[in-house]
Amino acid sequence: MIPFRSFTRFTAQVTLSCSMFLVLSLISVVSGQSQQATDSRPNIVIIYSDDHAQHAISAYGSRINTTPAIDQLARDGVRFNNSFVANSICGPARATLLTGLHSHANGMTANNTRFRDDLPTFAKSLQASGYQTAMIGKWHIPTKPKGFDYWAIKRGGYYNSRFETPTGMEPSEGHITDVITERSVDWMRESSQQDRPFLIWISHSAVHRTWAPAGRHLDRYADGDIPEPASLHDDYQGRNPGASTAQMRVSRDLFPAYDLKLPVTGEGILDKAASGQLAQLTPQQRKRWDAAFSPRNEAFAKSGLSGRELTKWNYQRYIKNYLRCVDGIDESVASVRDFLAKNELADNTVVIYSSDQGFFLGDHGWYDKRWMYEESFRTPLIIHWPRVTAKPATSDHLVQNIDIAPTLLEMAGVERVDAMHGRSLVPILKDEQPSEWRKAVYYHYQMKEPPGRTSHLVAKHYGIRTARHKLVYFYEHDFWELYDLQQDPGELNNLYPDLESSDLVKQLKKQLTGLRVQYDDKSGRPL
Ligand code: CA
Fold it and tell me: In angstroms, what is the span from residue 221 Cα to ligand 1's centroid?
């Protein structure tokens, strides 16, 4: 058993107990009820994955895999069909989740910028209101977690990772998705014995690169091919100049050992990283790994593939490992819900499934994220609040990751923080048909990467998406793109050159300006 209850947490509780406990005891005596009976607020479990695209979830219509546990959650709860992020990249997505603010307002505009950890967050608010709180897994924010009684930050790769906790580093053995799940279940088991509700952010690091699946999943999808996306061989005609120069192509930017699990032959930084990751495996794990990849790699070495055929092979190798990691996440959702059901917690526990952003699964010839194109701009969002979520169980409202924090506050009965940009989704969950819902969402990607072989080099851009249209301004290139998502869901036909002077573009620019004023985003070149 992992000693997850930290000394810090004990200290905090002991300090709290002197005055608070007397008051709470008095209330219990006077009312004749236990505190549990008086505090019926729901437990909240956020299962958050990394880089898990909507189109790799069967409940969202995936044509390449099935996700039975996530699908079951979607059947039980509400699936948000139009769920987007504010900035499609790991650290900023987490900062937005915590604060309910767009990136420019929480400071974390990129993975390598500061985070304003003095701001209100859902964790701080729920902790202050009496919730037991925990964050376990990927953090990716430069400051230490605040608002969590217990936290354990993953430090390492997919196997046998270490965890940084308030009391020091702790080792682990096993696949990271399993380990994060086990630690989270352990924490919930102990917390459920207390008289206060709990909130846990289970923050998986899968299915992020380097897509190293668990041993039990290594042979899945071994036979046959995964269907290719229509735009695998995209030529980027009509798109911004940065589209063809971005370094995220399945055809040429997947690293042989690091990404594709081919033998390490080079001396580059990612070759060394790949060697280091293999060295982390136990002999038994390594044996299983080699049994899966060695014969496949030998067959590849003999194939002599090049050109389009090599791109197709790269895609298969990449997407199969990605989907194997998704299988691990789906099993985690099943394990968590199974634990809740067996411990009579399911009826009063909100379960949320989401990811920090979407991902290109060969779409536009890419892997990775960052762009405002649908595949990485969208993110899964499914919420099950037992006895509260109403049917029909899907929503087409335009929602965004700025909405999660205000939603959690309302679920917990905590006063809303006015400064948050987002809006509570609780009325949608209750099928109360909220009037005056937003007509458009705002997006701004602004990570500046140093030039180099391992950078993705995506141009900065901001834009607006309505129910039907998307207008994006790549301000570094002073280049606009416009899409009719009804006619062109794959976003291959940039309508801007033909419609630059149209009423449609004028209206969208006016709306975009309005959103930049509403959110007070003065960063980036004015439109
Ligand atoms: Ca991510």
Answer: 24
* pLDDT digits 0-9 by tens, 95-113: 999 999 999 999 999 999 9
Tell how far the Cα of 98 is from the centroid of ligand 1, in angstroms.
15
Ligand 1 mean position, distance from CA 325 (Å)? 14
How many CB atoms are located within 10 Å of the residue 31 CB? Answer: 11
Cα angle value 456/459/460 (rounded, 5°): 120
369, 89 Cβ separation under 8 angstroms? yes
For 359, list phi and psi in degrees, rounded to 5.
-165, 150
Instruction: Report the DSSP beta bridge partners of residue 480.
Output: 473
Query: pLDDT tens digits, residue range 30-67?
Result: 333 334 446 899 999 999 999 999 999 999 999 999 99
Q: What residues are neighbours of ligand 1 (ion), with CB under 5 Å? A: 50-51, 90, 356
Question: Which helix or strand (DSSP H or E) is residue 137 part of?
Answer: strand 132-137
323: enclosing H helix or E strand? helix 307-342
Give every strand in the sheet of 479-484, ordered side by side.
440-445, 461-466, 469-474, 479-484
Look at residue 38 in the predicted model and tell me its pLDDT: 64
Q: For the chain, which domains are there?
A: 39-212+315-518 (3.40.720.10)
Q: Which of 4, 328, 273 is nearest to 164 (CA)?
A: 4
Report in angstroms the alpha-carbon separations of 8 from 111, 165, 166: 28, 10, 7
Give this prediction's pTM.
0.93
How far does the centroid of ligand 1 lie from the alpha carbon of residue 208, in Å? 6
